[in-house]
Amino acid sequence: MSIFEYNGSALVAMVGKNCFAIASDRRLGVQLQTIATDFQRISKVHDRLFIGLSGLATDAQTLHQRLMFRHKLYQLREERDMKPETFASLVSALLYEKRFGPYFCQPVIAGLSDDDKPFICTTDSIGAKELAKDFVVAGTAGDSLYGACEAMFKPDMEPEELFETLSQALLASVDRDCLSGWGGHIYIVTPTEVKECTLKGRMD
Predict the structure, then answer these.
(1) Which of 32, 128, 165, 195 is most buried, most CB within 10 Å of its CB?
(2) How far apart, in whole angstroms, are the C-alpha atoms of residue 120 and residue 101?
(3) Residue 157: DSSP 8-state
(4) What span, in angstroms and rounded, lies between the C-alpha atoms of 140 and 95?
């Protein structure tokens, strides 16, 4: 078993019309044993920027703390929030710095730029960025998420339709992966508000 699959995870971000959604499952496991069913993989950097960390849970928590520290320093120095593109470069640089003993994480970054255009991006464990205009996925349920998102995605979705599409894609995908699941966590972000929802899924 790969170290990336040790805790199990499912992460996906998708863009809509001047909005985006980011979702994850809630299971924390040690291989096939479930440890917690309310694990938080997604965190808010600021109101228009979110990051989800899949992979080894301990590395994800360490990386999250380092990224928040760097972002707070940036806020103090620049007196403004970081743009999503800048934050993606920060994540990439931080991971590449540790390439000889990498964090076993695959981040998913989603944000709104100054002109309310959604930005989504993922990187591998050593910081190689992959930008997308529709959706990005990560985690052990990644393969089935690709299929579900490919089938359900439509351009320029409104927030309500985006929520429905992403919820269905996530719940359908984690049912096909025994290392992730136990419901989901989803954030819908528009220029004016952030909605946070908890999805109920199969509890087996």
Answers:
(1) 165
(2) 26
(3) -
(4) 20
Per DSSP, what are the bridge partners of residue 139? 10
Which range of residues forms the domain containing residue 74?
3-199
pLDDT digits (tens, 9 = 90+) for 69-108: 999 999 999 999 999 999 999 999 999 999 999 999 999 9
Q: Where are the beta strands (DSSP E) in 32-117?
A: 33-36, 42-46, 49-55, 105-112
Give the closest residue to 149 by CA, choosing from 130, 176, 131, 168: 168
- Reported as a single tens digit per residue, the pLDDT across 126-170 is 989 999 999 999 999 889 999 999 999 998 899 999 999 999 999
Residue 22 and residue 107 in contact, taking contact as beta carbons nearer than 8 Å: no
Domain-embedded: residue 204: no
Note whether 112 and 119 are within 8 A (CB): yes
- CATH code, 28: 3.60.20.10
Residue 129, classified by CB atoms within 10 Å of its CB into exposed (0-12), middle (13-18) or buried (19+), is middle
pTM (two decimals)? 0.90
